[in-house]
Amino acid sequence: MIDRREQSRESLAGSLLLAHPVLQDPNFRRTMVLMSAHGQEGAMGVVLNRPTGKRLGEIQGEFALGPLAAAPVFSGGPVQVDRLILVAWQSRNDGFQLHFGIDPARAGQLMSEDHTKVRAYLGHSGWSAGQLEEELKRSTWVVTDAPVDLFDQVGDERLWREALAKQGDRWRLLADEPDDPEQN
How far apart are CA 89 and CA 14, in angstroms? Predict the structure, then answer.
């Protein structure tokens, strides 16, 4: 496995950021962020494990009768929370293909293809130039590769917990640590 933390020049697009267990920022506490862009201008992604419990057809009438009506809606992050971002994930034998920020017509087409999942995100997570690199230096995030079956997994806090636990025994202990120390 490549330790991307040491390769700050490499793009993290397509990677996952797992919030460090001690991160208290309510926007990112126990989150998993799928990175869609990362470069000298900054970085962008969506939080994968903050489901709203709604379907796209419920929140936007224009989707109510179309192929995207049943697409689950997630809170993608604290930036532009009124902006809808459609993401399609296609599992393949040799990995995955990510379609980020696609238009509804294309998302509907992709949804009809085998091994394709579509999700909707309200808002996104964003970092200005150099901001994410500084956070990585402070070990705010654990960087890991996205598994091929990412969108087949339950998209709630368990997603973060299970991914962090796969990083090793130390991380497994931290991931299972309760919010309230008295519950230890």
Answer: 11
Place of tokens 């599992």: 91
Distances (CA, A) of 145 to 16, 18, 96, 136, 149: 6, 10, 11, 15, 12
What is the DSSP code (8-state) at residue 162? H
Sign of CA dihedral 50, 55, 60, 62: positive
Query: What single letter denotes the amino acid at residue 75?
Result: S
77 CB-near residues (< 8 Å, 6+ apart): 27, 33, 45, 46, 47, 121, 123, 124, 125, 126
Q: What is the CA radius of gyration of the chain?
A: 17
How does DSSP assign 71-140, residue by residue?
A: -EEEE--SEEEEEEEEEEEEEETTEEEEEES--HHHHHHHHTSTTEEEEEEEEEEEEETTHHHHHHHTT-
For the chain, domains (ranges, CATH) are 4-172 (3.40.1740.10)
Burial class for 120, CB neighbours closer than 10 Å (0-12, 13-18, 19+): buried
pTM above 0.85, yes or no: yes
| Torsion sign over Cα 64, 79, 136, 177 | negative
Angle at 162 between CA 4 and CA 73, to 5 degrees: 90
pLDDT of amino acid 179: 66
- Residue-wise pLDDT for 70-99, tens only, equals 999 999 999 999 999 999 999 888 888 889
